[in-house]
UniProtKB/TrEMBL annotation:
Designated name of the protein: GNAT family N-acetyltransferase
Assigned EC number: 2.3.-.-
UniProt-listed Gene3D superfamilies: 3.40.630.30
Keywords: Acyltransferase, Transferase
Protein family (similarity comment): Belongs to the acetyltransferase family. RimJ subfamily.
PROSITE patterns: GNAT
Top-level EC class: transferase
Entry-linked InterPro entries: Acyl_CoA_acyltransferase, GNAT_dom, N-acetyltransferase
PANTHER family assigned: [RIBOSOMAL PROTEIN US5]-ALANINE N-ACETYLTRANSFERASE (PTHR43792:SF8), GNAT FAMILY, PUTATIVE (AFU_ORTHOLOGUE AFUA_3G00765)-RELATED-RELATED (PTHR43792)
MF terms (GO), sorted A to Z: acyltransferase activity
Residue ranges of domain N-acetyltransferase in the record: 13-179
Length: 205
């Protein structure tokens, strides 16, 4: 199976690689959701200027080429609505990665992100990763709901894990390993009656 680039689809939800030409649509979603996303935004502890869109895409594409990241755009009915990115991918004996995501508030509550995360996890496991984790601020109720409704295993609190919204923030860590979902996380999610239109969608982790 091809690791990257790939497209993943379920119904109205399409995951595809982030591209330079997404600039206008990406900026539009970000501007409309500035207050919605701000509490969960990664920030620089030294107060540095955030990268431009072009710099972000170039960095993620380089990491993807090296097998260290999978930066997906979430499209819903053909419109860019968010991102789900697998980062910190390690191979060798470790074979793990970390999943982060954000979504347009306009489609919140439709189960888009649970579906996208499940598709992403299944792809990662299929190409040889063994473990995926999601780290979520304890204050981010909708994102916690996604992890729990997907049945991700809670591993505990990680103190001051990431610099978010101007300070070092604690995160709850959730994970899934290949042996826990032999038939796939997406299949387990939908077997429980979940799917787009039924589950709560999270903001950025």
């Amino acid at each position: 199976m091809r690791t990257w680039p790939v497209e993943l689809r379920h119904g109205q939800v399409l995951l595809r690689p982030l591209r330079r030409r997404d600039l206008v649509a990406w900026n539009d979603v970000q501007l409309r959701n500035r207050e919605w996303l701000r509490p969960w935004e990664a920030t620089s502890p030294d107060g540095g200027v955030p990268p431009t869109f072009a710099q972000m895409v170039a960095s993620l594409r380089r990491q993807a080429k090296e097998g260290r990241a999978m930066p997906f755009v979430i499209e819903v009915d053909g419109r860019l609505r968010g991102q789900v990115t697998v980062s910190s991918i390690a191979w060798g004996a470790f074979r793990s990665g970390s999943v982060g995501y954000w979504v347009d508030q306009a489609v919140a509550g439709r189960g888009i992100v649970p579906c996208a995360v499940a598709l992403t996890v299944d792809h990662c496991l299929a190409v040889g990763l063994n473990r995926l984790e999601v780290n979520i601020r304890p204050e981010n109720g909708p994102s916690l709901a996604v992890a729990r409704k997907l049945g991700l295993r809670e591993e505990g609190l990680r103190r001051r894990l990431l610099h978010i919204d101007g300070d070092w923030r604690d995160h709850l860590s959730f994970a899934v390993t290949a042996d826990e979902v032999p038939d796939g996380l997406h299949a387990r999610f939908h077997a429980g009656g979940a799917g787009p239109g039924q589950e709560q969608v999270a903001t950025r982790t």
